[in-house]
Amino acid sequence: MRDALIVDAVRTPSGRGKPGGALSAVHPVDLHAHVLRAIVERTGIDPASLDDVISGAVGQIGEQSGNTARWAVLAAGFPESVPAVTIDRQCGSSQQAIHFAAQGIQSGAYDLVIASGVESMSRVTIGSQTAGRDPFGAGVAARYPGGLVPQGISAELIAARWDLPRETLDAFAVESHARAAAAWNDGRFDAEVVPVTMGDGRVVDRDETVREGTTVERLASLPPAFEDPAWTERFPEIDWRITAGNASPLTDGASAVLLASREAAGRLGLRARARVHSVAVAGDDPVTMLMGILPATRKVLERAGLAIGDIDAVEVNEAFAPVVLAWLAETGADPARVNVNGGATAIGHPLGASGGRLMTTLLGVLEQTGGRFGLQTMCEAGGLANATIIERLD
């Protein structure tokens, strides 16, 4: 099997995913096109040599509909001959795009591929693709007669079942913001972020979502985000610990990762930063849907022949604070190696772009710390999760 190499990875800064956010004036196709152009310019490849562009987007409706990846390729100025496809594995969509790109290279079907993702949550609001519709049908309703739950309720169930107090969740969030602010102040994000110049000439070059200096006391004043007596009746163990402060914010952003076969990298004179070592995807209970990261982590470590102690840097998507804390409790991973430069609680979670964003950050952390192996995993709606292990190359 051929090696799938990661040549480079970039992301936009994170903008607040609501009207007036730093990137809210940018059409998602144009935001996506920005990172596609950036990765081509940084690596010097001829875009005509791309075998495919595989992209994630969750809200595939309105301005992100109609195979949005294709329009981003054309908006980026790539030749019309460059194909593109948009996929949806919910929050893990662009991580799955990386997997598909790597698998295509390993099989011999591809030589040079961009895996990318975009989400403009200010313009395509979360849940808009299913608003007023039943996405499940009678078969799912019969299998889960109690009904499925929103992700916020799943996060509450995890906090209750792993006995994670509100103060612990808020302290985790404060640490995430502190780590992200320190990474920005130390220049650790400079190599991964491509600034966005707005139509009025304003340059967005820093994550708008990071709250430097926030405190546990400040977060303690925030009300529960999902409190509802109907859910308390069904799940009496819930005591409402999830707030806007210990969950990821609505976010606008895009990311792109260039992958190549070893042969193509040599032919084109590309210096690879890492290789995709092992990948996995797992399914889990769709009610407590956010803990698929546990079987996914176990599966990818087994495939890689590694233990959690062999992993030098980890990115676990901070959709909600209890997700990462429960993962830490179950895996025994060293918290000092997890989300070293902060996580989605601070950096944001632009759904379809988050998998690429985590990979971009993971590459940077491995290079900054001299680590060899990196693990990335993220929860996804429906009880799914992806996990990826990469190996840094000198």
Automatic annotation (TrEMBL):
Keywords: Acyltransferase, Transferase. The active site is at 91 (acyl-thioester intermediate), 349 (proton acceptor), 379 (proton acceptor). It is an enzyme of class 2 (transferase). Residues 271-392 form the Thiolase C-terminal domain. Coiled coil: none annotated. It comes from the Bacteria. This is Acetyl-CoA C-acyltransferase. It comes from Labedella phragmitis.
